[in-house]
TrEMBL record:
GO cellular component: cytoplasm
Keywords: Carbohydrate metabolism, Cobalt, Isomerase, Manganese, Metal-binding, Zinc
InterPro entries hit by this protein: Aldolase_TIM, Ribul_P_3_epim, Ribul_P_3_epim-like, RibuloseP-bd_barrel
One Gene Ontology molecular-function label: D-ribulose-phosphate 3-epimerase activity
Enzyme class: isomerase
Family: Belongs to the ribulose-phosphate 3-epimerase family.
Pfam families linked: Ribul_P_3_epim
EC number(s) reported in the record: 5.1.3.1
GO BP: carbohydrate metabolic process; pentose-phosphate shunt
UniProt cofactor note: Binds 1 divalent metal cation per subunit.
Species assigned in the record: Ligilactobacillus equi DSM 15833 = JCM 10991
Reaction catalysis annotation: D-ribulose 5-phosphate = D-xylulose 5-phosphate
Residues reported to bind substrate: S9, H67, G143, F144, A145, G146
Protein name per UniProt: Ribulose-phosphate 3-epimerase
Length: 219
């Protein structure tokens, strides 16, 4: 069983009290803050932008990722690298030359990753796997919180875990989309490292973040 990282999705946080939200998440012991960057083009929604990213980074000592749900991401990777991203994820479908973009991310001193949409087959991204530090498997369609988990993604999750083991790749695997405590318990046992936490696991609950994180650690 791999060590798991709990990564709250900040698009689900209450930005009217952002400093308190981050303080509570830090004290709860989460591992990383997940930052969804949306351009209203690649996905039909606008979410966190560069100024939001800079604000969150100034308020925390936790590492941040940058999940770029944007067209032609190579135009913006430098901005998010300079804003403090530890790892930058791109969607290969949004980039004409994704391998070039991944290498550029590394040139800026960040780890490089890909996010795989539900409709994207592993075969379509297999050539990128030797070049990445992380992969996020989307278990909902990207763009909105509160969607139902797509059960057919179970096969893809197991396929990526098997490919990593067979090829001795070292990239981390994360899941993003309706990640409930039950799914964390299930998938941590097959090699998933990172779990993006939204309204299904941590936000909008009656329990404190500290209580929730403790329960998730003990699953």
């Amino acid at each position: 069983m791999s060590k798991i990282n709990l990564c709250p999705s900040m698009m689900c946080a209450d930005f009217t009290k952002l400093d308190l939200e981050i303080q509570d998440l830090e004290q709860a012991g989460v591992d990383l803050l997940h930052m969804d960057i949306m351009d209203g083009n690649f996905v039909p929604n606008f979410a966190l932008g560069l100024e939001d990213y800079i604000s969150v980074n100034r308020l925390t000592h936790l590492p941040l990722d940058a999940h770029l749900m944007i067209e032609n991401p190579i135009r913006h990777v430098k901005l998010f690298a300079e804003a403090g991203a530890q790892i930058i994820y791109i969607h290969p479908e949004a980039d004409r030359f994704p391998l070039t973009t991944l290498e550029k991310i590394k040139d800026y001193g960040c780890k490089a990753g890909i996010a795989i949409n539900p409709e994207t087959s592993i075969e379509m991204v297999s050539e990128l796997l030797p070049h990445i530090d992380g992969v996020i498997i989307m278990t909902v369609n990207p763009g909105f919180a509160g969607q139902r988990f797509i059960e057919s993604m179970d096969k893809k999750i197991k396929q990526v875990c098997a490919l990593r083991k067979e090829n001795e790749f070292t990239f981390e695997i994360g899941l993003d989309g309706n990640i409930s405590p039950q799914r964390i318990k299930k998938y941590k046992n097959i090699g998933i490292n990172n779990f993006v936490l939204g309204t299904s696991a941590i936000f909008g609950k009656e329990q404190s973040y500290a209580e929730i994180v403790t329960e998730l650690r003990n699953l």
